[in-house]
Known about the structure:
Layout: E1 6-11, E2 15-20, E3 24-29, E4 35-38, H1 41-51, E5 58-62, H2 68-79, E6 83-87, H3 104-113, H4 115-118, E7 129-133, H5 145-148, H6 166-176, E8 183-187, H7 200-203, E9 211-216, E10 228-233, H8 239-248, E11 254-260, H9 263-276, E12 281-285, H10 292-298, H11 303-306, H12 313-321, E13 329-332, E14 337-339, E15 348-349, H13 355-365, H14 392-397
Parallel strand pairs: 7-8, 7-13, 8-9, 9-10, 10-11, 11-12
Antiparallel strand pairs: 1-5, 1-6, 2-3, 3-4, 13-14, 14-15
The structure holds iron/sulfur cluster.
Amino acid sequence: MENQEKFWLFIKPHVYVSKEENKCMLLYNTQNGEFIETARQHAINTVNQLHERQNLGTILMEKKVIDSEIETFIREAEQKKIFGIMLYSEKHPRPVQLMPVLNIQKDIEKLRKDTDRSIGEDTLHYLTELTLYVNDDCSLRCRHCKEAYKQVNFCIQNNTKFSIDLPTLQSIAKQIQYAPIGRLNIIGGNIFKYPLLENIVDIFDAQKEVIHCWSHYRNFQPKDLDVNFDIWVDFPVSNELLKKCLCDAPQDKTTFHFLIKNTEDVVNTEEIIEEHNLANTELHPFYTGENIEFFEDNIFLNREDIFSEIIEQRKIFCNQAFNFHNFGKLIVSANGDVFANINAPKLGNVKENSFLELLYKELDENTAWRKTRTEKPCDNCLYQYLCPPTSNYEFVIGKPNLCTVKS
Ligand code: SF4
């Protein structure tokens, strides 16, 4: 750069750029995690020029007209592999950068226009996880029953005595037999009160490898069922019942899920895991309405958390287009109502609507699958699509951003 009058400056195609009200700009290298944040107008203008459609990510610069500030910026960006430089020569053509663009919106529009295609069998390929609340009957009186299911895959008790009947179950199984289901959750109530539990494997023969039966540890009963078990443990724990459940559950096919509301629960969980040598465990934070400090200390993201690992371009694109917490998932409640997220409006009912109709409705209306960070304050944040999409925690806490970056 020193000895040449002119040079091509180009932005590398793997660089993600975001702006905050044109006052601040982030340039993020999705290959090495290096980044620059700048509020210098001259630097922002340079990147804006690179992004002008006709420039194709490349501009010709003259050394004599660039000031020391922009030179420092270019050097830093070059060193972080955000920019590239090519010396100008009349003999060589301009370098062209093909900037990747996201096309999902076009796909959705196409789906809307092309009605034949929209409810074609291929819509079923979006369905990767199905959760069936087979009943809502349970005689336990867990303190968190009415809240936990809104945050995690927790059981729910309504005692309305709804349960999914055999013809409905068979109809669901038939409709999803060719869907790429990676997980079929069977949950209640107390699933051991569900009269068709032992028929589940036969009914869902095409998905039998991915069936997960969920139970509260106090409800668990040993059954000769060839499924995976997912068992909830919440605190305070009944040692006697937990020990019984730990003895009865097939350890190689069981994951223990701990509902965590404070640091004491974390300590107790660690003790249980160690004492019983549990191999498959997951900890799930639980917002009680009174433990926001626990969430602020342990769940809220800060700037360092966001940049703690390399965020690949495909993940940023995914965050721009989809909500990965929800995408591909449907939930059927014990009365047949279907949701794309338990906190989202109902899509329909399995007794009245086919899965193709329900999937099309979600793709068209977007109650949950494509909910990205488009609300304030995230819509004007440099890290809008670096952050994971909103989850059920944002919903139950009633705050669109669980971070310390913006209040
Ligand atoms: S959660 Fe929202 S406001 Fe907070 S850092 Fe992420 S995008 Fe920004």
